[in-house]
Specification:
By secondary structure, the chain is an alpha/beta fold. The chain is built from 19 helices and 23 strands.
Length: 551
Amino acid sequence: MEIAQSADIQPIKNIAEKIGINSDDLEQYGKYKAKIPLNYIDEEKIKKSKLILVTAINPTPAGEGKTTVSVGLCDGLNKIGKKAIAVLREPSLGPVFGIKGGAAGGGYAQVIPMVDINLHFTGDFAAVEKANNLLSALIDNNLQNKKHSLNIDPKTIVWKRVMDMNDRALRNIIIGIGDKNGTTREDGFNITPASEVMAILCLSKDFNDLKERLGNIFVGYTYDKKPVYTRDLKAENAMAILLRDAIKPNLVQTLEGNAAILHGGPFANIAQGTNTIIATKMGLSLGDYVVTEAGFGGDLGAEKFIDIKCRYGNLQPDAYVIVATVRALRYHGGAKKDEYGSPNLEYLKKGFGNLQKHIENAGNYNLQPIVAINHFATDSEEEIQYIKDECAKLGVKAILADEFTMGGEGMKELAAEVVASTESQRDDFQFLYPLEMSIEEKIETIAKKVYGATSVNYAQKAKSDLKIIKELGFDSLPICMAKTQKSLSDDEKKIGRPTDFEVTVREFEFASGAGFIIPILGDMMRMPGLPAVPAAEGMHIDENGNITGLS
């Protein structure tokens, strides 16, 4: 926080000019943030630029720092003379005030203005929320309006309201009890990043594609078992109007004055976990290198980035970076909380299997990974060398990342290796599965090849859901697995590299507008709750508007 607040922040028009944007074209939100018009996307330039995907091992309480590495790598690339732009997701207020705190990097590798980014920013999340809840209002209005009724069966409605805050009390609610003429029914709230509208915003190629996808949202069934979509309610245009500005990417800067684009923010354990296709293409149009990240570990974020986002956006990574920390590998080896910061080679050796599996998973796409060892002061030389040596045995380079304490200067070695990787990457990139596969075959492919499972089981509810999905004709959609981010398996307690395990699909959801099927493994929360001691309790603001405790 102190570093961010003392930074020599530049007017956003200066940052825009560095990457070829006319300051008159910017839609400024104050001095330090702005939206970029969509006409700056250049499909021919995109083909010549390099896309760098940053992913990680499975997240741990010990911390990995994927965003920090992504920002630092962008600065490092600029340090070695490359025109690089960081393209990242926007933070959600729920985690900011809950357990995670801010999400704009850390130390000397941050995007700024940090406070604005972590709070309301340019209003994109609010626009997604309003568009989502407009549809909810139109659904309930249709239930009440007998003259123009679509004859929707209230018991079949799957669409929920959203709010960008952790509030477990809203997960399941009863609505309509205050309206004599209304329909009383069960409903609930999801957190805004879990809205299908957010997923649609992030997968839309342009404004027309956005409207079409909004119209394809499945709402429920009529009493005579006919599917009802948003387009039947004539809601897609009104929803798109609310997203008119939200579809434009947001321009900010790193601490070192390099361009950063932040746009969209779906969660990675229940959605695709990546920024928008539009933002990524904007970065590739304006820079020669784009550093982007995928949420959580490679088993969730990277797989979805490639098999969903890259498929819809006609993109492919030119470099693949896996972030790991010595602390996190100690955790995966069995270290307890008070041992995360103490050198222990035995824990590290036991936990290395998690990193090894993520390295192997890059081969599923015929990509050659680079490991970034995000450096902590408590790392021992012996532990760092062990990671480097073991990675070398797998034919992979592991490089120390010192962005937190040194900024871009501490990332020059990694940046140079990334550039070399983009120039030597194999040209036989492939998706994990073809869309023509059956739904069951796609799920089995992900579970076995990415997670390392031996088999997939289906609960009775999942079997019934699967039958409905096939009847609706959604067989050819990609898969967006919903599972814990804490383990390669569907059991968060199985840390490291679990073996000889099965995964169970409890039920299915589908996002017909966004365009993917969601197998749910275990209990997944679309509306998180606050921890016992929320981050909000440690935040303060003085009479001059100065904020502390937000980072």
